[in-house]
Write a structure and sequence with these properties.
Blueprint: H1 2-15, H2 30-35, H3 40-44, H4 49-58, H5 61-71, E1 76-78, E2 83-85, E3 88-94, E4 98-100, H6 130-140, H7 163-169, H8 171-176, E5 179-184, E6 191-197, H9 204-207, E7 209-214, H10 241-255, H11 265-275, E8 278-284, H12 298-302, H13 325-329, H14 333-347, E9 350-353, E10 362-365, H15 367-370, E11 401-406, E12 412-415, H16 421-424, H17 456-466, H18 473-483
Antiparallel strand pairs: 1-4, 2-3, 3-8, 5-7, 6-11, 9-10, 11-12
Bound molecules: heme C (HEC) (2 copies).
Length: about 475
């Protein structure tokens, strides 16, 4: 019992309550950075040797502490261990009975000290958030394995010679949790690059390589995935999702972790089996999400059926029903708000217009139309939509802007990320991404592939404007309360 208490106490102390709103701290002076390593971790608990070595292995502060403590529990994190976030707690349930920290997912096979957990941490919804990344920077002077120039810095040739230079060179990672994905424009595609602005020490006009900045997708709840990666590039016709994940694990080790050889099949299988056994969801927000008949939390999710196309033609518009019990029998204002938000998500109708990727580009639907996997919210078939994230008008100035021209019609379009079109070379795929799985969404601000929405209020604000939805203030607040409870 005391071991558990110690473990839990350390966890809480180290994780802090990460805000949903990531804010880039002002650039620290070199002196401040140099002094910083003693701050965040030592402030809560003396660093034991176990902690220090776990930190080296796992690279993540909060997670390192959890890992070090769990060393005493046999290299595992117990199922349903609550990890705090700004809105309450989220937890992971593994069908294996516990999170096995000895799995290859947590091992370094590459040359730059990274493991999968460097960017997919159990304490932050199996992705990473800016608050945690900034605290890793301060603790290690920007030398933690997450800070590597192959994909962590704004560009490959960035100056990382001093702490202050590193703070500048990793600014997109520090402020928005974005990694740099570099891809050549498909040469046989339907478009060509005609202009590029806001790029970081790269000349895409000469080498046709685009720098795209993307948030790590969570490596959990993968049972409900129809296409792997924001642009589906690891999936291909004829590959099952498990095969795509196996390919992805290898590519991640060779790419992100700079491994010098391909990952043996047995190791890929071990990783895929591990990540597909994980289910992560919020367990408490305005209310305990499994109380009074509600079916929130990850345990119920593990029992949900999924197959590709499970809710496709015809789409059942009632996508979420886990909070049905609170519709009529709410025992608190929080329960009532969450249940009302679920109804808004399922039933609030608006005109979905100009979304390339939708069969019809002008029809009436709801949030559930594109987030249609029952009680999960991913899209149940491998399709991609352009809802306008990263368009020339909505792009933030820290992002590149690429203008491409249709080789046949001569039409041009400017976006910060071409999305699915980088995989297919198709003009119509420009700006298309996969609709996100919405479970445990409170754990992973900022939102969208480019981290452009700092909070769930911002996400709802984006949709409200984009589709002219006309939410009442109460509908907006209820929808946010619901999303935070997933
Ligand atoms: C340097 C950070 C980093 C490391 C290390 C890393 N990933 Fe990722 N991961 C990302 C990013 C960024 C994406 C999204 C990229 C995209 O879609 O273009 C991603 C996407 C994924 C996805 C796709 C999920 C989905 O819904 O499609 C899976 C699965 C995944 N990673 C697993 C792994 C595994 C397994 C490892 C270790 C072998 C690993 N990652 C190592 C950053 C990382
Ligand atoms: C036309 C299809 C469509 C509709 C309608 C839609 N979404 Fe989305 N949603 C997407 C796509 C595509 C993405 C990923 C976009 C990107 O990052 O470029 C996304 C992403 C999100 C995310 C970000 C999750 C993350 O991990 O960053 C949230 C939250 C979200 N949607 C909630 C909603 C809500 C709430 C509504 C209703 C108001 C809604 N969506 C309506 C297609 C849609």
């Amino acid at each position: 019992m005391s071991k558990h208490l110690l473990y839990f106490g350390l966890l809480l102390a180290s994780c802090g309550r990460h805000g949903e709103t990531p804010q880039m701290a002002a650039e620290p002076s070199v002196g401040a950075v140099a002094a910083a390593p003693t701050l965040p971790v030592n402030a809560v608990a003396p660093i034991s040797e176990a902690t220090a070595s776990a930190q080296e292995n796992f690279g993540n502060s909060s997670f390192a502490i959890a890992a070090a403590s769990s060393a005493r529990l046999g290299q595992r994190i117990p199922n349903m261990t609550p990890f705090p976030n700004s809105r309450g707690y989220a937890a992971t349930y593994s069908t294996k009975g516990f999170i096995d920290l000895e799995n290859a997912f947590f091992k370094s096979f590459g040359t730059n000290g990274r493991t999968c957990a460097t960017c997919h941490s159990p304490s932050t919804g199996w992705t990473v958030n800016p608050a945690d990344i900034q605290s890793r920077f301060l603790r290690t002077n920007g030398l933690d394995p997450i800070f590597r120039t192959n994909d962590g810095s704004n560009c490959a040739k960035a100056d990382v010679s001093t702490p202050a230079a590193r703070w500048r060179s990793y600014s997109l990672l520090l402020s928005k949790g974005l990694f740099r994905v570099e891809m050549p424009i498909p040469t046989d595609g339907e478009f060509e690059l005609v202009a590029a602005t806001g790029v970081y020490c790269n000349n895409p006009m000469a080498n046709s390589v685009l720098q795209l900045f993307r948030r790590p997708l969570p490596s959990t709840n993968l049972k409900f995935t129809a296409a792997v990666m924001w642009d589906g590039r690891e999936s291909a016709p004829g590959l099952t999702v498990a095969q795509a994940l196996s390919k992805q694990a290898n590519d991640a080790m060779v790419g992100h972790a700079q491994a010098l050889s391909q990952l043996p099949q047995a190791t890929r299988d071990e990783i895929v089996e591990f990540e597909t056994s994980l289910f992560t969801a919020q367990v408490s927000s305005l209310a305990n999400l499994v109380a009074d008949g509600a079916r929130g939390g990850p345990q119920v999710m593990a029992t949900l059926p999924f197959s590709i196309g499970i809710n496709d033609t015809p789409i059942n518009p009632v996508v979420f029903d886990i909070f049905d019990a609170w519709k009529t029998r709410a025992r608190s204002a929080g329960q009532a708000a969450i249940a009302r938000g679920q109804t808004v998500f399922n039933t609030k109708k608006f005109r979905i217009v100009g979304v390339s990727g939708q069969d019809s580009q002008d029809f009436v639907g709801s949030c559930a139309t594109c987030h249609n996997t029952p009680n999960v919210g991913s899209y149940s078939v491998p399709e991609f939509f352009n809802i306008g994230i990263g368009s020339a008008t909505s792009r933030t100035l820290d992002m590149p802007l690429y203008t491409v021209k249709n080789k046949v019609t001569g039409a041009t379009v400017a976006v910060s990320d071409l999305g699915r079109a980088m995989v297919t070379g198709k003009w119509e795929d420009i700006g298309r991404f996969k609709p996100s799985n919405l479970r445990a969404v409170a754990t992973r601000a900022p939102y969208f592939h480019d981290g452009s929405a700092t909070s769930l209020e911002d996400v709802v604000g984006f949709y409200s404007k984009r589709f002219n939805i006309g939410f009442t203030p109460m509908e907006r607040a209820d929808l946010v309360a619901f999303l935070r409870s997933l």
